[in-house]
Amino acid sequence: MNQQMFEQVKAGKGFIAALDQSGGSTPSTLERYGVQYTEDNMMDKIHDMRLRIVNSPAFDDSNISAAILFKDSVTRGMVNILDEKGIDTFLKVDLGCEEDGTMKPFPVKETLDWATNGIGPKIYGTKMRSIVHGVGMVHPVLKQQFTLARTIYEYGLVPIIEPEVPIDHPIKGEVEDALMYHLQEFLDEFPGKCILKLTPPEVPNLYHNLTVFPNVERVVFLSGGYSTNEACNRLGLNDDVSASFSRALSEGLRYDLTDEEFNATISSNIKQITEASK
User: Which side of the chain, N or C, has fewer Cβ within a 10 Å radius?
Assistant: First the structure.
């Protein structure tokens, strides 16, 4: 990680684009995109979609500070396109979630060795996603996340910690209260820098205190299945946070759009998300 990368992400200039759909979410993404695919060419099709997004003129460093990529996108050279545009890269390192919402085991050392030695300074950090299914799972999820985050930070990378609360959770507000309480506990003990990626809360500014922790570079919100309008409206009710949207970023994009139509659609989404992130 170099100082220029640090300053760009820390300053919060633009939002963090989430382009890290893996095998689990790729089918639904491609279905919304309207493209036919098979199990054999699925990753090729999603890569083509991501390429079309990052090559759009609107996808630039005036609106976007960083993008989260799946390893497949990194190995195919997308990190170089982002680097040329002045956009930093985060690597998705988790391999999905267990039924209880904690992360499945993944080869931590091998993954981080690859990210730091194979790619070098073009990788700014990592992203790990867990799902918080209830109040009782808040502590186990955060314990796993922050334990791995320590190792990631020791490699010189900044971890994005993402304990997602489903937007349709029946007691979403209660889970978020517990999440806020325990996040402060874990942050007090965390020795390095991190970014928090959270579901927009039911109570606006619930997480605002997290934005002033000295070891929190940024707090960003996921879109979590909300429409672009709803995700941006919820984001706009909160101070000092920005977006890290995936589905809301790609809303309305279709395989059969002309380049002009595609660029106009992604430009409109980016403009709306950028405004909500201010």
Answer: C
